[in-house]
Design goal:
With 354 residues, the protein is of the alpha+beta class. 33% of the residues lie in helices and 21% in strands. The chain has two domains: 126 residues, Creatinase/prolidase N-terminal domain (Creatine Amidinohydrolase, Chain A, domain 1, 3-Layer(aba) Sandwich); 213 residues, Creatine Amidinohydrolase (Alpha-Beta Complex), CATH 3.90.230.10. The chain is built from ten helices and 18 strands. Helix 4 runs parallel beside helix 5, helix 7 packs across helix 8 and helix 9 runs antiparallel to helix 10. The model has no long low-confidence stretch (mean pLDDT 95).
């Protein structure tokens, strides 16, 4: 693993549950910070999963070839530290973003002075940014389920249906499409509520001609789908038509920039330029996209402050939006695969056409 060389490490301790699954194939989830389903010790030649005796049979049935499973009791820091000391590891990296203060203190106490703990930031997270063929297939499966569920759910939208009722329909359609459930809590935001990108569906009745933002995603084999469409009932109002066309133009501009080697912030900039030219820049309140994989938000970041560079194999969302307090908003989101010469749109769901 390149991280070991970069930080001159003898071993790397992985505590993030998503990274644990990525490296070992073990699908157990962490239900609380003090209820970890396991940690992974990685060296240049080995990978060891420490998990509870309860989870040991499950882990052995799932882990990738070459992963050793070792039963460990809480606190797991004691067993891991003992293993590091027994193997003579002088420098041990750790994920400072997912290691608790308590666990760090325990490791420091157990390892000192023989071993040094070295923070590696989000280095393991970034390994997940370039998708392997099996990962891409899982994402595409999640996206197909998402597309199907959207088409079925949006067709059931009627006047006076509430946001909460439509969200329940979306969840049911995601299940019926064969998914493992939602990749994230479904967003349904109508009328003025559509001005809040992360609105929680409420009991507001949906009216004719107003924007209805549906942001949804299926999960398949651990991987996430992500889709946003703005729809309406009846004839859209003039402001909705104008804003929808502007967001669609910004979306196309952003996608046209995507290719390997391009700065991620340039993709965000392409969308903002469209909005700025129309005098709507003040109504842009979030980045144009993000990476997608085992988590719905992951590397690379597609925002104006991003320092990331797009690489072939990145799977990212393109989701420009405009929001006007008191009126509502419009957002259009697709998922694209970054190629050397451009982007492949992986989303198949139809858009409303004003």
């Amino acid at each position: 693993m390149e991280l070991l060389d970069r930080h001159s490490l003898d071993a790397l301790l992985v505590t993030n549950g998503t990274n644990r699954r990525y490296l070992t194939g073990f699908t157990a989830e962490d239900h609380a910070p003090d209820e970890s389903s396991g940690v992974v010790l990685v060296t240049a030649s080995s990978m060891t999963l420490f998990t509870s005796p309860t989870n040991e049979p499950w882990a052995r049935a799932e882990v990738n070839d070459g992963v050793e499973v070792v039963p460990a009791t809480r606190p797991w820091t004691t067993g891991v530290a003992a293993e590091c000391l027994a193997r003579g590891y002088g420098k041990v990296g750790f994920e400072d973003g997912s290691t608790s203060v308590r666990d760090h203190a325990g490791l420091t106490r157990e390892l000192s002075p023989a071993s040094e703990l070295v923070p590696v930031g989000d280095g393991v997270d970034r390994l997940r940014a370039i998708k392997r063929p099996a990962e891409l297939a899982a994402i595409q499966s999640a996206l197909r389920m998402t597309d199907l569920a959207f088409e079925r759910a949006s067709a059931r939208l009627t006047v006076a249906m509430t946001e909460r009722e439509l969200a329940e329909i979306v969840r049911a359609e995601l299940r019926d499409a064969g998914s493992d459930g939602e990749a994230f809590p479904t967003i349904v935001a109508s009328g003025p509520n559509a001005a809040r990108p992360h609105h929680v569906p409420a009991d507001r009745a949906i009216g004719e001609g107003e924007p209805v933002i549906i942001d949804m995603g299926a999960r398949a084999n651990g991987y996430c789908g992500d889709l946003t469409r703005t729809v309406w009932l009846g004839q859209p109002g003039a402001q909705l038509v104008t804003m929808y066309r502007l967001v669609a133009d910004a979306h196309a501009a952003a996608v046209s920039v995507v290719r390997a080697g391009v700065a991620a912030r340039a993709v965000d900039r392409a969308a903002r330029d469209v909005f700025d030219a129309a005098g709507m820049g003040a109504h842009v309140i979030h980045s144009v996209g993000h990476g997608l994989g085992l988590r719905v938000h992951e590397s690379p970041s597609i925002g104006q402050a991003s320092l990331d560079t797009l690489q072939p194999g990145n799977v990212i969302t393109i989701e420009p939006g405009l929001y006007v307090a008191g009126w509502g908003g419009v957002r259009i989101e697709d998922v694209v695969l970054v190629r050397d010469d451009g982007a492949t749109n992986l989303t198949g769901a139809a858009r409303h056409a004003p």
